[in-house]
User: What shape does this take?
Amino acid sequence: MSVKHYLRNAANYLSFSLVRVFILQPIVLVCVLVVSGQAASDIGYDDNHISYRLNHKPDLIPNGVNLLLDDPYLSILRAQSENPIKDESPLGEEEIPNKKKETIEPITRKLPIWGEKIREMGFDLPLPFGVGANFVYMDQGIEIRNLKIDTGNTNFDISGVAFSNARAHDAVTTARLDLWLLPFANVYGIFGYINGEAELDVNVPAIIVDLPVVGPTPITDATSTNLNIDYNGTTFGGGVTLAGGYKEFFGSLDINYTHSNVDVVDGEIKTLTVSPRLGVLVNPAAIRGSLAFWVGAMYMDYKQTVTDDINLREIDPSLPSAEINFKIDLKNEEHWNFLFGGQWEITKRWQVMAEGGLGNRRQLILGAFFRF
Assistant: This one.
């Protein structure tokens, strides 16, 4: 072989390697790693635990395709709602080589988009549609903003009334519908019911009465009491989950927005959540199906408006009877908290999950899901 011919072959190989490293791999990485239908809420509590299993079938894949699929950067995984998992070699698989994997046909092969091409390459995609239910309980510190007070009685000067030590406790039950639009992207909508309580301290300064002849006269000392504002109503919203991973490891990113209408006058709750997660798939011989465990974080932007009233006698029987009408905006004190959770995929159709959150915001999310 001539030196010229050798150099030409080397240049061709180098060109292919550069295309593969700098063009093919980044394109797939963007699709796979940008990724992530509860919690929470389901007033924005993100939680979309859908099963997404991609089973590699090497005997169906042409040799030329295998050259690309063998590259770890070009592998597409299994995703579980927000918890994607590539089921090529889950932990524990070596100990259970004869464990059966069920084959269930989807009701349509038109979804996800590009799904049929991936099936022809030897991968088993998740069932495209899902329906599920989530229960979310959340407790978090609240920051009070834009306090507006009106007594309707000009004889009283209570401009110094203030609220402090606020917390919100929300219990949310939602139904969820989703579909895999792309092999790495799931879109969903949620609708449900919220029951909650805002707990805060009302701090009332000394009451001053404008008496005839005498003028402004303090008639009470400063006092403080705890106020509980109960509310309930409907919540609805939607989001997207992007997911990807490699072998038994997975990553996901879930983004959703919800709006809740509650029964306090002009009351509403708007919530935006963003939840990245990283986890691992375990396939033990002792149980049916597979398990997934993950850790992550949740960013939540929680805004609530409350309009209500309270009588001064409810604060202190010694105070005069006067209604205080107020309107306050509430916002969560801390945006981020830590997540940990797990899911059991009993079959390709049925999954159950649980997730907890720690920090200034504490939460518990339970869910059950059916795919078809």
In short: The first strand starts at residue 55 and ends at 56. Residues 148 and 327 are 5 Å apart (CA to CA).
